[in-house]
Amino acid sequence: MHTILILTPHNVSNILPTTFTHCSVCNDELSHIIEIGKGGGGGRIKMKKISIIICDRYRTCAGGKCLRAMANREGAFALYKEEEIEIVGYTSCGGCPGGNVEYAPAEMKKNGADVIHLATGLVVGYPPCPRLKAFCEFIPAKYGIDVVIGTHPIPQNYYLTHQNLGTWKSDRWQGRIKHVLTTEKMRLTYD
After folding, report:
1. What are the C-alpha distances in Å from 182 to residues 42, 79, 134?
2. How do 84-92 and 146-149 pair as beta strands?
3. Which of 30, 81, 133, 190 has a C-alpha 20 to 30 A away from that of 72?
4. Stretch 152-167: mean pLDDT
5. Residue range(s) defining the domain that contains residue 139
């Protein structure tokens, strides 16, 4: 009997498909190759490169909630449950009207960013960022980089405030917060 090792993007990185050519038990040549985590780089698993733009009112934020959510694949980072991810940029919008959004994505793109996340703070702060729509249109048009609204799950205290205010009742807002609107149990861990 032979043991089969299943490799996934979470327990392996940068393994070439030719690494394993013979069975480690009987030394027979392997007759089948199973590709996982298809990506570029000569059969290497592709790493999703992510950048984050935060609201300038939180410019002193150390990124703890975003980084925890990224490591645990929570909130908007649940989109990458089956992928390896790396942060390649982190900055603020530069303050209203978001002047840094005009230039920061260029550096993020040079660092290989596949996607830019507009941090959860842009939707939970009061008032929420009035320029989200413009940022979501401008970044892909100018730099060809996808944009996702949100990073970490919405903290419960912000959720309750915005529920009371009715901020997120519209379909437009429901679409914006869909990746960070999690269960109450999860929201409480981000308070």
Report:
1. 37, 13, 25
2. unpaired
3. 133
4. 96
5. 47-189
